[in-house]
Amino acid sequence: MPDDGHRSRQRQLAGDLRALILAGDIGPGRRLPSTAELTRRYAVGNQTVTRALGILKAEGLVTGHKGKSVVSTGRRPAVVRAGHYPSPMTPGRDAVIRLLRVGETAAPAQVAHAFGIPAGDPVAVRHQVLDLDGEPAELVWAYYPAAVARGTALAESRRLRGGSPTVLAALGHPLRHVVDQVSVRPATVAEFVALRLPEDIPVLRQFRIAYTDGDRPIEVTVMIKAGQQFEIRYELPAPG
Fold it and tell me: Does the keyword Transcription apply (predicted)?
């Protein structure tokens, strides 16, 4: 294994093994190569192998105990379909949404730009966290024009029956289309703590604008996803 010159050897080894697991080359229930084999194959010491496997255990990708074989688990990222609203989860995952805060706040710059209002103007916000299999996986901030949300279910501290599309449609603002921007970056301190991220895992940031009639932006959502928990699937029409 060549040295990339930046990461520790255990992180480089963990990266190679992670790629094999996520690609299915080391399938669920299959044993990983032994410590002795990994030390020979990658020209590293036993401690490096042990630490690399510890990284993968912390991510839930492998399981095993000292002195026993290490096997790949069946845990795989949840699949999010791009362009679908709301995003479905991979079957078999236990998904729970916890509402953290509902109220009004000063519009962040990107949100304000999407709504066409000055930065800092009041907007309604619903902040929640998605747990997958009992672990925090996604932080969500959904923003609405204050005048639209005030006095409606959007401003109430409770789950929305049918989700925000149902509520918005009932208010006369049916969703017509959404536009997503997706990026990957290192986590902030707050995100790292809230999502209980394993080390060396980035977050996937999804910035979504939902439009109603007249191409009017009616909902802006910021989603911060734990990088090891999600994959995005695109389904595109054939050219021509």
Answer: yes
